Model the fold of this input.
Amino acid sequence: MAVRKKQRLADYGLNSERLLMPGKGPGVFERELGDDLEDKLMLTTVAKAVNWAQGHSIWPDTFGLACCAIEMMSIVSSRYDIARFGAEVFRSSPRQADLLIVSGRVAHKMAAPLRQIYDQMLEPKWVIAMGACASSGGMFNNYAILQGVDKIVAVDIHVPGCPPRPEALVEGIVRLQEKIVAGVPPAYEIRGVAS
Amino acid sequence: MPGLVERVDAYGETTLVVDPARLAEACTHLRDEGRFNFLSDITAVDYLGWGGREVAGYYGTAAGRDLGSQSAQGFARTPAPKPARFAVNYHLLQIPGGEVVRVQVWVDDGQSVPSVIEIWPTADWHEREAYDMMGIPFDGHPNLRRILMEDDWEGHPLRKDYPIGGEPVRFSGAE
Amino acid sequence: MAVTERRTIYEGTRIPAPVPTSLHVPAGLADSEDILQVNFGPNHPSTHGVLRLVVDLSGERVVGLRAVIGYLHTGFEKNMEQKTWWKAITYPERIDYVSFQNNELVFVLAIEKLLGIEVPPKATWMRMLLCELNRIHSHLVFLATSALELGAISMFWYGMRERDQVLDLSELVTGMRMHTRYFQAGGLAEDVPRGFDAECRKFVEWMPKAIDEYEAMLTRNEIWLERTRGIGLLSADDAIALGQSGPVLRASGVDWDNRRDQPYLAYPNVDFRVPVYHGGDVYDRYRVRMDEMRESVRIIEQCLDAMPEGPWIADDRKVVLPPRHELHTSMESLIHHFKIVTEGYRVPEGEVYVTIESPRGELGCYVVSDGGPKPWRVKFRAPSFVALEATATCMTDSMIADMIAIVGSLDSVMGEVDR
Done:
């Protein structure tokens, strides 16, 4: 009996990529992962259980910088309630947090503290670049703003918007959950950078 | 009023141009006799290239866009030249009373302005910002250090000869 | 609402010298005791954004304080010099990102002052309504975050609940929850949609009851009173000398409000009270903001009742885009549209300084125009920048736990401080 080799992320249970665009080919992320998908993804039962647990209890770190921080605060509120997705509390100490949501524009002066906070987090850790400024510098292409936080930390999910609606950020966290549950390693492992 | 050079009234606002050497005297007079007890803001402006710089105009010539010509800039008329490179504006308010006035001093690059921190303590951070962003030194300020940029930053970002910085944006379709 | 009698908060001045904005450890203390220098921030749950405070502690008493800012410096003013006047309107909103409409308003008012353009009354009243909604939004964020920091965690969820209602209204009118880019030079970008009036009235009916709930939770709460009464004292003279404005100034007993004393928009036509308290402490600043929320609801109701019909933007085609249906038939409209979009409208040469009452205090915008399509210089007088200057004075003879309450009560938004 031929078992179809799991090739696409959808085979690993990642649904949201395919919902809107059914005929779409492999995305940038899949192409980046390349052919040796199986080597990179963990398939054992214990690993799956660990992933399920990790993915469904991601605790973010309070790293609100600017306007996106205000929208990030509202996902904690009762209307959008991130706690039902497992992000029960925002931990102030990076040593207790799994997820760094960089929400807001990162000035060059702030880049060093950002990297320091990221370094203080324990593996496995994930980063969401929330908003246009964290993803690419946003509307501020100038001397003061770091043009994209992925220059200094490895980013898993970029959430577009200025500021993104709380639902958009929740979608980003949900996609991150799906990634983790499917067994995709954190970004620093995929990109082979220091964590 | 001591040190007054000129008084300009425009757009419903009064501007008092003051000699920089007598600024402290003028401000003390305004605070005590004029009852302007509230310093709202200190703004430094760099007028380098005033009236002469290229601005996106949309007038074409046979040789391409002529950015050097005045009419290419879309100006209604050429702005009058300014007395010096930098203007430092002090916006004052009377509480109560409600009168508003702007005190303006003109300085050149490197020339310093006396600090008004003794008169209005709120000037502390405003003057530090003017120094950080424009490079105007304030005499008598007890803590004149950079405030917004890093301590070892070189250059003064809001000057007109300081580049905007940032990265060139690559458009994926335009090769 | 009873206003307490005028009383002296403290004798003389507490502004530190020689540097008014930082506390220096007294020479004797520095040698004798153990002084612990602790760094708060820039990433810290209890500072409103990326503020760094370097604090010297002698036990639990704060003996030295120095604020370091600039961790969110964005170069707004330099960026705005690169864009045309129209495109530059998207920048000020992000400066004080909690009261975004007020930033837009002050910049647009400055442009209109230079242009000398007449804004239709519907736009004026609608701007006033949206700015008052924004004031409620800002005070709710203050309440939610300050209470959260002091331990009254449930206030956060109550505040966020109403805040989402305010943002729903904003989305109904402008299309965006925050950073709406709705105010244009000459009026509003689009007409007010139908159904806004009904939704806003529902909010106006509900909000006073919500404020009653907040007051029931906090105003007579023993813990809240212990932590905020008598903390962070600032006298009226010191407040004026330090350039304070807004709720901080009014809590110190100075009766000054730009909406009433330097009127703009249609504020002379609405009836509202300016709350003034004389205690000069954190508790009074909280009371001022609660009362201001109530007054804002009253102003919004009056705006809804008095909302005029008519155009929502001025008719000056040199500045305002013509309506789209005209582009099909009129050549002049097409040319105007083209010039405004590509080159931008030209603003006459001059300099103006416009101040409004933002939820944090006196927000000022100084604009210099050289007659061209781009601003020459734009400077925002940020009330939070000045409020942080008062931190050292308020922190005289305080404990470390009070620092959180005081910095929260000054209600500074770091986007505004660093610009």
Observations:
- The radius of gyration of chain B is 20 Å.
- The helical segments of chain B are 23-32, 123-134.
- Chain B touches chain C through 53 residues (CB under 8 Å).
- DSSP finds two helices and nine strands in chain B.
